Amino acid sequence: MAELIVVGVDGNERAERAADTAARLAAATGAGLHVVCAYVRDQAAEISVADGTHEVSISRESADIAARVAGRLAKVVPGVTSSAVQGRPADVLLAEADRLHASLIVVGNRRMQGIARVLGSVPAAVAHHAPCDVYIVNTG
């Protein structure tokens, strides 16, 4: 079975840095790469503008974020795949890694403050429950 790296993104610069590291690791090891964007719940709305009405949704925006990052990283790692999955970020990363039989999960170490620090961070949850190795990128 081929090695596979899973990395989570959410549209922010720190997640992009983690994704860049995941791509470098995949290129160096010959592993595949899967980019996933989690969203807590889907909401959709119709927006009317001069050229008509457009539907926007969180799930579609999340899929677009993952696809955009995957497209950018495909220059480094051909064949990058992507998905958007409903759920809490840590749960989604763990589930996708398990579903895809990943050999590595890459996450950034976003600085947590306030209530997020009390409730726990995505990197901590992933590191404690991962079905594979975890690489925590210093994105600070």
Measured between the Cα atoms of the first and last residue, the distance is 34 Å
**Spatial order of the strands in the main sheet?**
5-2-1-6-7
As for the CATH topology, it is Rossmann fold
* Element-by-element helix/strand order: EHEEEHEHEHHE
Q: What's the number of structural domains?
A: 1
Q: If you average the pLDDT, what whole number results?
A: 87
CATH level 4 superfamily: HUPs
* Helix residue percentage: 40-55%
Largest sheet features: 5 strands, parallel
Give Rg in angstroms: 16 Å
- Beta-strand content: 25-35%
What global shape is seen?
Answer: globular
The chain-level structural class is alpha/beta
- Total strands: the figure is 7
Question: Given this structure, which CATH class is correct?
Answer: Alpha Beta
Tally of separate helices? 5
What's the CATH architecture name?
Answer: 3-Layer(aba) Sandwich
Low-confidence stretches: 115-119
What would you note in describing this structure?
InterPro entries: Rossmann-like_a/b/a_fold, Universal_stress_UspA, UspA. One of its GO terms (molecular function) is ATP binding. This is Universal stress protein. Belongs to the universal stress protein A family. Residues 3-137 form the UspA domain. With 140 residues, this protein is of the alpha/beta class. It has a single domain (4-137), classed as HUPs (Rossmann fold), CATH 3.40.50. Helix content is 41%, strand content 29%. It has 5 helices and 7 strands. It has helices at 13-29, 58-73, 89-99, 115-119, 122-129, and strands at residues 4-8, 32-39, 44-49, 52-57, 81-86, 104-108, 133-137. Strands 5-2-1-6-7 form a 5-stranded parallel sheet, sandwiched between helices. A two-stranded antiparallel ribbon has the order 3-4. β3 and β4 form a beta hairpin. α3 runs parallel beside α5 (122-129). The longest helix has 17 residues, at 13-29. The radius of gyration is 16 Å and the shape is globular. The N and C termini lie far apart (34 Å). Residues 115-119 have low confidence and may be disordered.
